[in-house]
C-alpha cells in the first residue's frame, strides 16, 4: 500500500486529494500546524517557527506532497506577510529536507505545489511555457524559491515534480466561491480591463494530475497545471453568470479601485496571460474539464 504524506492537507486541494487517495486505498498522513481529527488519516504536527517536526510523520512514507503555504491572496502584502508567504513554503521544505536526509529508508517522490505566478503579473499575447524564465516580481520570486526548495530533494535521490497550479475552481472555496457571491445577487462584474486571461483549472483535474505525478515515473520537473482553454476575465464572469442563470450588466470594477483596496496584491486579479498546458497533455494526461462552461456546470449545482 502506497503511503503518502501531505503538508497543508487541510486546505482546498489537500482535503479533496486526501479523500481521493483514501478511496483508492492509499495510506494518508497529514503534516499540519494543529491537530485535526480526520477519518482514515494520521495527523502529525510540525512547528515551523521552532523548526520542529514529528519524525513519525515520515516513517515508511513513499511520497510527499508539499501543499503548505500561507494564502497568497489572503492578506495585504506587507514585508512581514511577504516573508511569511515565502517561509511557509521554503523553510517548511527545508525542514523536511533536513529530516529526510537523516533517514535510512527515504521516500521516493517529492511533489510540490507551485503557481503560474512564476511567469509574473503580466497581460500579453504571449503563451507561457515551462521553459520560460521566472519573473522578478514578488510572485515570480516566491515561485522560483519554492521550486528550488523542492528540487533540492533530488540530491537525496527523490524524483521531484513541481506543479504550477492555475486558479483552482472548486465548489468548496477558493476563487470561484468568492466570484459566485456577487453573481448570485446579479451584480457580478469583471475586474480592471477584463482582457487579462484567467488560467483556471477544475479541482478534479488538479487531483488527477497529482495522482499521475505519483504514479508516472517518467514525470519529473515543472508542469503547468491549467486547463487548455483560453478565457479572459470578461468571458469568465459572463460565462459564470450564464451558467448561474443570472443577469450580467455591471460595468467592470476599475483597476485603480482595486489597487487602492488591495495594494500590490491587486496584480493577482488585474493581470494574466495564457499559460500552455501542452507539456502535461504530451505526458499523456487527458483533461476531464478542458472547457469553462462544462467546468462551471459541474461545480455549480
Ligand atoms: N487554490 C489555488 O487556486 C492555488 C493556485 C496556485 C497555487 N496554489 C498553491 O497550492 C497549495 C495548496 O493550495 P490550497 O488552495 O489547498 O491552499 P489553502 O486552502 O490555502 O491551504 C494551504 C494549507 O497550508 C497550511 N498553511 C497555511 N498557512 C501556513 C503557514 N503560515 N505555515 C505553514 N502552513 C500553512 C494550512 O494547513 P494546516 O492548517 O493544516 O497547517 C492550509 O490549510 C498552496 O501552497 C497554494 O499557494 C493554490
Question: Would you spell out the secondary-structure blueprint of this structure?
Answer:
Blueprint: E1 3-7, H1 12-23, E2 27-32, E3 41-47, E4 52-53, E5 63-66, H2 79-101, E6 109-115, E7 127-128, H3 138-151, E8 159-165, E9 167-169, H4 174-184, E10 200-202, H5 203-215, E11 221-225, H6 233-243, H7 255-262, H8 267-270, E12 274-275, H9 278-282, H10 292-299
Parallel strand pairs: 1-2, 1-5, 2-3, 5-6, 6-8, 7-12, 8-11, 9-10
Antiparallel strand pairs: 3-4
The structure holds NADP nicotinamide-adenine-dinucleotide phosphate.
Mean pLDDT: 95
The number of helical runs is 10
- Report the helical percentage: 25-40%
CATH architecture level-2 label of the domain at 3-170 and 200-226 = 3-Layer(aba) Sandwich
**Rg for CA atoms:** 19 Å
Overall description:
The structure is a single chain. This protein has 301 residues and is α/β, with parallel strands linked by helices. The chain has a domain of 195 residues: Rossmann fold (3-Layer(aba) Sandwich). The strands form 3 sheets. It has an 8-stranded mixed beta sheet with strand order 4-3-2-1-5-6-8-11, sandwiched between helices. It has a two-stranded parallel ribbon with strand order 7-12. The chain has a two-stranded parallel ribbon with strand order 9-10. α1 links the parallel β1 and β2. It is globular and about 60 Å long. It starts with a strand and ends with a helix. It binds NADP nicotinamide-adenine-dinucleotide phosphate. NADP nicotinamide-adenine-dinucleotide phosphate (NAP) binds next to α1, α2, β6, β9 and α4.
Amino acid at each position: 500500500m502506497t503511503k503518502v504524506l501531505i503538508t497543508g492537507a487541510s486546505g482546498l486541494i489537500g482535503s479533496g486529494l486526501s479523500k481521493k487517495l483514501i478511496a483508492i486505498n492509499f495510506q494518508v498522513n497529514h503534516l499540519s500546524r494543529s491537530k485535526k481529527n480526520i477519518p482514515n488519516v494520521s495527523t502529525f504536527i510540525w512547528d515551523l517557527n521552532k523548526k520542529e517536526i514529528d519524525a513519525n510523520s515520515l516513517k515508511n512514507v513513499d511520497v510527499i506532497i508539499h501543499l503548505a503555504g500561507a494564502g497568497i491572496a489572503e492578506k495585504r502584502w506587507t514585508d512581514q506577510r511577504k516573508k511569511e508567504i515565502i517561509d511557509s513554503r521554503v523553510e517548511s521544505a527545508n525542514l523536511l529536507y533536513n529530516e529526510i536526509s537523516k533517514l535510512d529508508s527515504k521516500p521516493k517522490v517529492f511533489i510540490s505545489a507551485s503557481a503560474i505566478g512564476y511567469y509574473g503579473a503580466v497581460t500579453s499575447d504571449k503563451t507561457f511555457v515551462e521553459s520560460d524564465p521566472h519573473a522578478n516580481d514578488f510572485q515570480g520570486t516566491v515561485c522560483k524559491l519554492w521550486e528550488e526548495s523542492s528540487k533540492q530533494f533530488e540530491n537525496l535521490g527523490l524524483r521531484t515534480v513541481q506543479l504550477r497550479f492555475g486558479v483552482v475552481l472548486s465548489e468548496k472555496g477558493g476563487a470561484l466561491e468568492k466570484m459566485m457571491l456577487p453573481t448570485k445577487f446579479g451584480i457580478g462584474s469583471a475586474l480592471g480591463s477584463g482582457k487579462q486571461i484567467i488560467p483556471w483549472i477544475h479541482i478534479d483535474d488538479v487531483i488527477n494530475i497529482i495522482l499521475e505525478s505519483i504514479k508516472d515515473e517518467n514525470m519529473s520537473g515543472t508542469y503547468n497545471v491549467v486547463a487548455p482553454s483560453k478565457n479572459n476575465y470578461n468571458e469568465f464572469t459572463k460565462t459564470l453568470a450564464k451558467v448561474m442563470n443570472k443577469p450580467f450588466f455591471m460595468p467592470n470594477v476599475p483597476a485603480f479601485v482595486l489597487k487602492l483596496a488591495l495594494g500590490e496584491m491587486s496584480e493577482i486579479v488585474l493581470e494574466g496571460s495564457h499559460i500552455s498546458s501542452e507539456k502535461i497533455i504530451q505526458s499523456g494526461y487527458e483533461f476531464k474539464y478542458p472547457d469553462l462552461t462544462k467546468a462551471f456546470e459541474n461545480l455549480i449545482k
